[in-house]
Amino acid sequence: MPTNLSPEYFKAEERYQQAKTIEEKILATQELIRVAPKHKGTEKLLKTLKRRLAKLREELQKQQSRRVGGGHSFAVKKEGAAQVALVGVPNSGKSMLLRWLTGARSEVADYPFTTQRPVPGMMRFEDIQIQFVEVPALIKGSSTGKGLGTQSLGVARNADAIALVIDVSTDPIAQVKTLLVEFEAAGILLNQVDKVEDTPDKNLVQRQAAIIATKGDFRGARERFERLRRTFGDRFPMVLVSAEKGGDPYELKRLIFENLKIIRIYTKRPDKKSSERPLVLPNGSTVLDVARVVHKDLVRDLKFARVWGSARFSGQQVPRDYSLQDKDIVELHA
How confident is the model at residue 192 (pLDDT cuts 50, 70, 90)? Predict the structure, then answer.
C-alpha cells in the first residue's frame, strides 16, 4: 500500500471495516476513492477500490430486487426510436411534464413522491415516436438504497438518454448537484464520454443528458434559470418551460431529439419514392451502416449508394463509408 496516504484515507478505511450494511460500505468506499491521492503510485489501489465499489453496487441492486420480490418490475420495455428517462428530485414537475409531452396519465399532485413506479408515455416528434419514462424521485442517498433510488437509477441507466427535470421555483443548482452526485455514485456519467473511455471500470456507463427547467412561470424563475445556465450551460443543453400553462412544446421536443444524437435515414429503390418511415441510427452512421440494417447480405455486396440531402447534389454517388446526416435519402446499389 502507498505510504503517502492521508489521515482522512485511514479514517475512511476504518469506517469501511466497521460498516455493517452494504449502504455504509458503499459510502465508505466512495470516500476512500475521493480522498486517495491520484498519481502513478496509487493506480493499483484506485482500481481495487473501484472494483470493490462496482461489486457493492451489484450486491445492493440484487438486495433491492429481493426486497420487492413478487411486486411489479421496474423494467420498462423500450418502444419507439429511443427511450428517455425523466429524472428529478421530489415535486420537480416530472408528472406534469410527462402529461404535456405524451398525454400519459401520470398522477399529478403538489406533494412529493407521488410517482411510485415508472410511468411510460410516447411523444411524437415530426415522423418518429420517442418514449419517455417518468421514474420515482431521487433524493440524497438514492444510490445507496434510500427510498426507491437504486431502482430509479437502474431505469435511468438502461435508457438511451436522460432528462434532468429541475424546478426553478426553488434552488435549481442544488437540485442538479444532488442528482449528479447520485448518478456518479451509481456509475452513470452524464455527457462525459471521454471519462468513461479512460476508466477500466466496466460498470461505468455514459448517457446523454439535457436539463428541462420546469415551472418557468413562477416569480423569479427566469433569473434562477439564468444562474443555472451560467453554472451548467457548458455541460448540458437546457430549456425553460411551463408545462402547467401548456402551449406548443416544439422547442423542447427538438432539444430532446438533438440530445439523443440520432439521425433519420429514408431508403429508396431506383425509380421509386423514398420510404415514409425512417431508419433511426446513431450520429456518424455511414452508408454501410444503413446496408447492415436493411439486409445482412448487402454489407458484402454493396458497391455504392446515391444520396439526396447532405450530398453536394441530388442523387450523388457516394462510397460505402460516406457519413450521413439527418433526413438523408439513401439508394443502395449492390
Answer: confident
pTM score, two decimals?
Answer: 0.77
| Integer-rounded Cα radius of gyration of the chain | 23
Structure-block grid coordinates of residue 33 = 476513492
220 within 8 A of 204, measured Cβ to Cβ: no
Per the CB < 8 A criterion, the answer to whether 183 and 189 are in contact is: yes
Mean pLDDT for 25-38 is 82
Q: How far apart are CA 201 and CA 184, in angstroms?
A: 13
Report the pLDDT value the prediction gives residue 320, as an integer from 0 to 100.
Answer: 92
145 DSSP 8-state letter = T
Q: Where are the beta strands (DSSP E) in the chain?
A: 83-87, 119-125, 128-134, 161-167, 188-190, 205-214, 238-240, 262-268, 279-282, 304-308, 316-318, 328-333
Q: Which residues contact 149 (CB under 8 A, 6 or more apart)?
A: 138, 139, 141, 142, 143, 182
State the pLDDT at residue 196. Answer: 56
Ramachandran angles phi, psi of 329, nearest 5°:
-105, 130
For residues 322 and 287, the answer to whether their CB atoms sit within 8 Å is yes
SS3 label, residue 169: coil
Q: Which domains does the chain have, with CATH numbers?
A: 7-67 (no CATH), 83-259 (3.40.50.300), 262-333 (3.10.20.30)
Q: Report the pLDDT value the prediction gives residue 114, as an integer from 0 to 100.
A: 54
DSSP per-residue letters across 260-292: TTEEEEEEE-TTSPPPSSPEEEETT-BHHHHHH
In angstroms, rounded to a whole number, what is the distance separating the alpha carbons of residues 87 and 178? 12
What is the chain's mean pLDDT, rounded?
Answer: 86
For residue 94, the surrounding DSSP H or E stretch is: helix 94-102
Per-residue pLDDT tens for 90-105?
Answer: 989 999 999 999 988 6
Residue 142: strand, helix, or coil: helix
More confident residue, 34 or 121: 121
Question: How far apart (Å, rounded) are the C-alpha atoms in residues 46 and 1?
Answer: 11
SS3 59: helix
